[in-house]
Amino acid sequence: MAITSVDDIASGLSTQQRRNFLKILTAPKAAGAFQGSWLGTGIPGAGGAAPAYTAGSGYTCSSATAGALAYTNAAIQNWLARMTAMANVRGTWILVDRLWSCSGMGFAAATYTVTTPGALPARITDNGEGCEIWVEQFVAAGAATGTLTVNYKDVGDAAGAGVIAAVVSAPVIGQMQPVPLAVGDTGVRSIVSAVNSATWTSGTFGITIVKRIVEIPCGIIGVVQPFDWAACLAAIPADACLQWIWMAETTTAPTVTGTVSIIDK
Fold this sequence. Notes:
single chain; 2 helices
């Protein structure tokens, strides 16, 4: 059944799955930068680098992938109904479903074509509506200039191209850079290739597709902040690979702890 009233949420919370998290992330490169939790230590433990873009398989992620927050699939439908968070620095904590990821794209001025990228996981039934592309650093990289273009298929299976107009130079491990979609595009269903316009001095990068679930501000240092259903109610599909992205306000390494309350309704 769908949630039709606050009473439905209250009854769901009586049998909630309450999952604790504590993630220790690498120091962000700058205020305003994004730092992924995937490689961060803590609870859940760190995930690993995605398969190389030439692997041909294994790109999709699920709740069984190492690094994902563990939970049990619903009998009816899982919902995020409550969340708490406390951080040692100010920033924004973004919960996402990690859908697809590859690594190993090099630093040369070249085109890196993904081998048999495949479709998004079966839990995505809307052809990738609302799905986002991010550049993810599984390793730190050297100085960089120029643009980075990600070629993809949009929700209508037409070709699209997202361009980072000026790549971040010397990105740190765990850093994530959002890739703007082409004007008018509302999602992405697969990755075709990535193109560097200039050579980086060293390192590699990966491409990751996520679907945003909720974002909450951590505006008071060292204080647990609760967010109830009015702030964070969102459906969680079966087998979702839950992770976080931190939007930094300082360059101090963030430690974020809290709980996720999932109900079945």
